[in-house]
Amino acid sequence: MTKSIGLIGIGVMGSNIALNFSEKGTSVHVFNQSEDKINSLIEKDSNGNISGSTDLENFIESLPKPRKILMLIPSGKPTFDMAKKVINYLEPNDILIDGGNAYYLDSSRLGALCAKKEIDFIGMGVSGGEEGARNGPALMIGSEKSINNELKDSLSSIAASYENSLSIGFYKGYGTGHFIKMLHNGIEYAEMQIITEAYHILKKANYTNIEISEFFKKFSTQNRSSYLIEITSEILLKKNDSGYLLDQIQSTANHKGTGKLTVETSLNYGFPLPSVFEAFNARVESNYENLWSKNIDGQLIDISSESLNNAIYFARLATMIQGLLFIQHVSNKEQLDIDLKEVLQNWSAGCIIRSDLLNELGNAKLLNPITTTPSVQDLLQNNLSDAKEVIKSCIDSGISIPVINSSYNWFVGTSSTFNPSALIQAQRDYFGAHQVQFKNSDEFIHLDWD
Ligand code: 6PG
Fold first, then answer.
1. 256 in ligand 1 pocket by Cβ < 6 Å?
2. Which residue out of 352, 354, 358 has the highest number of ligand 1 atoms within 8 Å of its CB and is therefore the one to mutate?
3. Contact status, residue 180 vs residue 141, Cβ threshold 8 Å
4. Does any ligand 1 atom lie closer than 6 A to the CB of residue 213?
5. Given the CA of residue 192, which atom of ligand 1 is nearest to it?
6. β 95-98/68-71 pair status
7. 181-415 to CATH, choices 3.40.50.150, 3.40.50.720, 1.10.1040.10, 3.40.1080.10
8. Which of 44, 102, 145, 348 could make a disulfide contact with 162, Cβ separation 3.0–4.6 Å?
C-alpha cells in the first residue's frame, strides 16, 4: 500500500520535507491557498508524489483514512487557529501532527483538544534547518498512543541516521517531543555562544579569520567537532568584494524564543541551567553594545590554542550534562520515562547540535544520575585546569566569556564540599522571619537573632 501524508505549510521547511517524503516514496498532498505555490512545489518534485489542494475541506476529504496531517506552520496562534479548523473536518482515529517549533505546553493543550474528538495528536520537534528537512532531519516525537505503523514508516524513511540508527525519538506525552526539541535549542544557544566566545578570544589574540577557521577545522581530527563548529569554520572564510562577510554583519544577536522558553522552563522547575541562561542573556546583551559613554578596550590576550580547545570541550560537556540532568529531572517529576540514551541517539544526526561529543556520550556507559558516571566526571575534571587558565587570561585581558565562565562556576559550585547558602537562609530569617532548617532536620524554624 502506498504511504501517504497531508501537509499544511509549504514554506521552506514544509517544501523541503514534502520533497524528502516524495523521494522516499510517501505521497504528499499539500494544502495551500496559493495555487502558484503548490504548482511551483510540484514542479520541483522529480518523483511525482506531490499533489495539492487550495480548499481545506477538499484537501482533508481527499486523504485516505485514517488521515495523517502534518502541520509545519508558525507556532502559537497560527498553529492553534489552523488546528481548530482542521479538527472540524477530522474523524476519530485521524492523526494530526504539529511539526512546528511549538512550546511543549501548547502541544499538551492541543493534544487534549484533539483527544476530546478522539483524534490522535502528535507533537513532533523537527531539527536540522532547511538542509535537514530536505535530506534528513532529527525527529522528536511525542504522543500518548503508539504511532500508526504506516506513519512510522514514512517518518523513519525521511529521518537522518548515524551508524545505521535513525535520529528519531519516540516519547510519552503530547508535549514531550517538543520538550526535547526545546532543550535541543537551549543547548544550541549555549554551543553557539561558546564558539562565539572562542572566536572573541582568538580575535583578541590577533588570529586572522583564516587562522580562526583553521583552529576550528582541526577539531574534526580530534573527534571534538560538531555541525556548528564545522559551519563556523566555513563562515569565517566567506568573502565578498568588501572583504569577509562576517566582518560586515551587525553584532546584535536575535532569537525566535526557544532559548528563552528553555530558560523560563528551567526557572519554573527551579532547576539550574546556567550555561543556557547565560547564552540567552548574551544574545540579549549584544543589543546593548554602547551602554557606557566610556569603553574598556580589552588588551591583547596570549592564549595556548590547546588550552582553549580544552576549555571549549569542557564548557560544551558541562552544558550538555546540565541539559540532560534537566531532562531527567522533568522526566522524573512528570513521570515521562525519558531514556537519556534515546535522547542522545535522537540528537546524533540531522539536528543542529549533532556532534562528536553527543556520539561520545551516546557510546559511554552512563549511570543514573549521569553525574555519577566516572568517565563523565573524569572528562570534566581533566579539562578543568585549562578552562580555569582561559578564564584567568580573559579576566586579565578584559574579555567577557559568560558561558565558558558559567559552565566552570556550575561545575565547581556543584562539586564543592562547601556550600555557603546557609548565610542566605540566615539573612532571610533575620530580616523577614522566613525560617531556616538546621542540618539533619526537616523542621522550619524562626531563630532569635536579637
Ligand atoms: C533546528 C533549529 C531551528 C532554529 C530555531 C532557533 O533545530 O533546526 O534549532 O529550530 O534555528 O529557529 O532559532 P533562533 O536562534 O532564532 O531562536
1. yes
2. 352
3. no
4. no
5. 15
6. parallel
7. 1.10.1040.10
8. 348
Architecture of domain 420-450 in this structure:
Up-down Bundle (1.20)
The residue behind cell 513532533 is 124
- Ligand 1 binding pocket includes 74 (Cβ within 6 Å): no
**pLDDT tens digits, residue range 336-390?**
999 999 999 999 999 999 999 999 999 999 999 999 999 999 999 999 999 999 9
Q: What's this model's pTM, rounded to 2 decimal places?
A: 0.97
